[in-house]
Amino acid sequence: MLVLKKWLHMWFLGHASEEDCHGDGDDAQVRVHVQGDKPEQDVQVLRRLLIPQVIVGTPPPQGCFGKPGLFVQVYVVDAMWADVLERHDAVLVGEVVSTVCGKDASIVDVVLPGEPWKTRRCQLGQGYLRAIPPEDFLQMKGLLQSLPVPHHSLSMESERQPNESSAAWT
């Protein structure tokens, strides 16, 4: 299962494995592997501290090697937002802050739906990103901010205002 796992001030896309699950329900601990990490870096995390993700659309075969300042479409979303985004023909968008070359990933400030000017800083594998023009980014950003979506209680801790980001908002 794809999940977001928080460490310090950023969310990391990873795979949660139920094979090494300990406990029941939200108190269960699952093993999480973050893309690009070595298997010995996998960690046990309480299930309730993870945000389940789903793939939306068809990611491009080669993904996108995101350079800082590049606007991107993001092909993974919080599972609880997938239906609302689909109904409104919306996709998540963001701006690349930096690249993590050794992990084939980018640090992206992802625009969150339903909250004006809120973003979530995530490390995302480049296979889940596609470059988009600035005008498409701005149009989708406006649509996303108008959508009525619930927010995961964990995500509220790390939402950012645009002036907190090293990336420039247009």
Brief description of this entry?
The protein has helices at residues 82-87, 134-146; strands spanning 2-7, 10-22, 29-34, 43-46, 50-55, 71-74, 76-78, 92-100, 105-111, 119-125, 129-131, 159-160. By secondary structure, it is mainly β.
Characterization of the model:
β1 (2-7) and β2 form a beta hairpin. The protein is built from two helices and twelve strands. With 170 residues, the protein is mainly β. Strands 1, 2, 3, 4, 5, 6, 7, 8, 9, 10, 11 and 12 form a twelve-stranded mixed sheet that branches. The protein folds into two domains: 2-53, SH3 type barrels, CATH 2.30.30; 56-164, no CATH class.
Low-confidence stretches: 161-170
How do the helices and strands follow one another from N- to C-terminus? EEEEEEEHEEEEHE
Oligomer: single chain
Query: Beta-strand percentage?
Result: 35-45%
Overall tally of domains: 2
Rg, rounded, reads 15 Å
Query: Tally the helices: what do you get?
Result: 2
Helix content: 10-25%
Structural class given helices, strands, pairing? mainly beta
Shape: globular
The largest pleated sheet is described as: 12 strands, mixed
Average residue pLDDT:
83
Number of strands: 12
Attribute tags:
170 residues, mainly beta, SH3 type barrels, 2 domains, 12-stranded mixed beta sheet, 11% helix, globular
Secondary-structure blueprint:
Blueprint: E1 2-7, E2 10-22, E3 29-34, E4 43-46, E5 50-55, E6 71-74, E7 76-78, H1 82-87, E8 92-100, E9 105-111, E10 119-125, E11 129-131, H2 134-146, E12 159-160
Parallel strand pairs: 2-10
Antiparallel strand pairs: 1-2, 1-5, 2-3, 3-4, 5-7, 6-8, 6-11, 8-9, 9-10, 10-12
